[in-house]
Automatic annotation (TrEMBL):
One of its GO terms (molecular function) is DNA-binding transcription factor activity. It comes from Actinomadura montaniterrae. GO terms for biological process: response to stress. This is MarR family transcriptional regulator. Keywords: DNA-binding, Transcription, Transcription regulation. Pfam families: MarR. InterPro entries: HTH_MarR-typ (IPR000835), MarR/SlyA-like (IPR039422), Tscrpt_reg_MarR-type_CS (IPR023187), WH-like_DNA-bd_sf (IPR036388), WH_DNA-bd_sf (IPR036390). Residues 1-135 form the HTH marR-type domain.
Length: 154
């Protein structure tokens, strides 16, 4: 009970800290994830909405809602793929690229602050232990999971 109770409390605190940071940039966590995924992909032509949904491991409906908000804010464009008119290509606007570049730096600093009580060996051991637990529970964690979205945004 002590382990799961502490994991729950850490999650609540971390979520609160992340929400506050993303709010400073006028973003919700899911919007940050979409922008970071597009930035990480680095493709000047963007990504399909389907690729974004698979990358974020959320439903296509959730991605559509996030994209609607990001288009309205001027951070992404959504255009029909000329090579396949059934697909939509999503790309960062210059404003979106600028925002995510600034947000990722702040996000990494925030993560460092949150984890400041742990030295690097402790962080590595905790990441490995949590990954083992997640995999044992059926999670399909990948190699980048120890560092979170920001590491993939780089």
């Amino acid at each position: 009970m002590g382990v799961l109770g502490r994991l729950t409390r850490v999650t609540r605190i971390a979520e609160r800290e992340l929400k506050a940071l993303f709010g400073e940039f006028g973003l919700e966590r899911g919007e940050f994830d979409v922008l970071a995924t597009l930035r990480r992909a680095g493709a000047p032509g963007g990504m399909t909405a389907g690729d974004l949904a698979r990358s974020s491991m959320v439903t296509s409906g959730a991605v559509t809602n996030r994209l609607d908000r990001l288009v309205a804010k001027g951070y992404v464009t959504r255009d029909v793929d000329p090579g396949n008119r059934r697909s939509v290509i999503v790309a960062l606007t210059p404003a979106g690229r600028d925002l995510i570049d600034r947000a990722v730096v702040a996000h990494l600093e925030n993560e460092q602050r949150i984890l400041a009580a742990l030295d690097q060996d402790q962080r590595d051991a905790l990441a490995t232990t949590l990954r083992t637990l997640l995999l044992s529970l059926g999670d399909e964690a990948d190699e980048a999971d120890g560092a979170g979205e920001a590491s993939r945004a780089g």
